[in-house]
Structures are given as structure tokens and as C-alpha cells.
Amino acid sequence: MLAGLMATAFAGPAFAQQQLNTGLGSTWPTDTPDVSLAPGFHAYVWVKSGVKYVQINDAAGNVLVAVATANGIFLPLPMGRSAKLLQTPQDGTTATGGAAGVAIYQDGSVQITAMPQDDGAMVFKAEATCTNPVECTTHVN
């Protein structure tokens, strides 16, 4: 009995260190499918209270960028290795140089593209795909 109690006591910290792999910011989220369009990337999407959250991970599962969007407005989230390299329509900036971009995620309201730059950096661009202003402002696609 003493051996069982000691095993439980020592196992407690190990169990405490294990985290559920769900939700925004997770390496391999298990609460939503990978919907990436491009090899080498993983894309995960959550919708809550009318806001869509899109997270892009690299092939190893490292979070690169995440953005929240609703009604054509984009809010870059301060998370991921490339968070400073995420461009949105509200930024008014555009990546220059580099190869043509590759779409990582796209649906009826948002597209996220990765654009390799001449200096080796990878810039991510989030933009609206909805072309009907009435539809875009009344529904989360």
C-alpha cells in the first residue's frame, strides 16, 4: 500500500505537466480539424460569438500566426513565431519581393496566404474573400 501511495505521489507532477491539446494556441489542436490547403502547413479554425479565429502552424506544429476576424475586420493575435509578419487589410502594408504566395486557408470570408520573401522570411497575409458587402456584414461564413 505504501508503494502505491508513493507511486501516486510521484506521478502527480507528471500528470500536472500534461496539458490538453485543445484550443487556440495549441501545437496539435484536437478540438477542430486541420483544414490546410498547403503541404507544410496546418490550419485550424474556431468560431465563437460571431468571431472566426484562424491559426496557422508549421509542419512541426509550431504556431506561426493567428488572426481573429468578423465582418471583414481582422485582428492579428499576438501569438506565434511569425506574429509580427502577419499582414491584414487594416495594416495598409504589403509584402514586397519574394515568390508568389501559396494559399494556406480559404473559405467564404477569409484567405490566409504565405509569401516567402527574398530575405528568407515568410510573410503571412490575411484578407477578406467575400465580395457581397451585405452578405459579408450580416453573416459569419
Q: Please, could you describe this protein's structure?
A:
By secondary structure, this protein is α+β, with helices and mostly antiparallel strands. The protein has one domain (22-138). Helix content is 16%, strand content 35%. The chain contains 2 helices and 8 strands; from the N terminus they run αββββββββα. The chain has helices at 2-17, 133-138, and strands at 41-48, 51-58, 63-70, 73-76, 86-87, 102-106, 110-116, 122-128. Strands 1-2-3-4 form a 4-stranded antiparallel sheet, with no helix packed on it. Strand 1 and strand 2 (51-58) form a beta hairpin. The longest helix has 16 residues, at 2-17. The protein is globular and about 40 Å long. The N and C termini lie far apart (57 Å). The model is unreliable at 4-17 (pLDDT under 50).
Total domain count: 1
> From the helix content, strand content and strand pairing, which structural class follows?
alpha+beta
Major pleated sheet: 4 strands, antiparallel
* Uncertain residue segments: 4-17
Shape: globular
Our count of helices gives 2
| Strand order in the sheet with the most strands | 1-2-3-4
Number of strands: 8
The rounded Rg comes to 19 Å
Task: Give helix % range.
Answer: 10-25%
The SSE order reads HEEEEEEEEH
Mean pLDDT across residues = 83
Terminal CA distance: 57 Å
Query: What percent strand?
Result: 25-35%
